[in-house]
Amino acid sequence: MAILEAARKVGLLTTDSTLYIGEVAATDEALGVRITLLDESTGLFNGHDLFVTWTQVRRVWICNNEHEVGRFVHEMEQMVGAT
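Structure (tokenized):
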């Protein structure tokens, strides 16, 4: 949930933007990425997958089990502030 709160804080969750938070289920180097979405209200993966072509991806932040969430959130805030 810290990632979701940070997204709100830095203004990524607005009425004119789309932000998907989820777990990478599969990638295709030529086509795109499939993610299992995180339900904003529960903070749990809801089992719904979304496929996004690389041409539709504007920004990507990747965090895995080895990342410290606080550091990841800080880096996300820095990147948003720099763009």
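The beta strands are 22-28, 32-38, 45-53. The chain has a mean pLDDT of 75.
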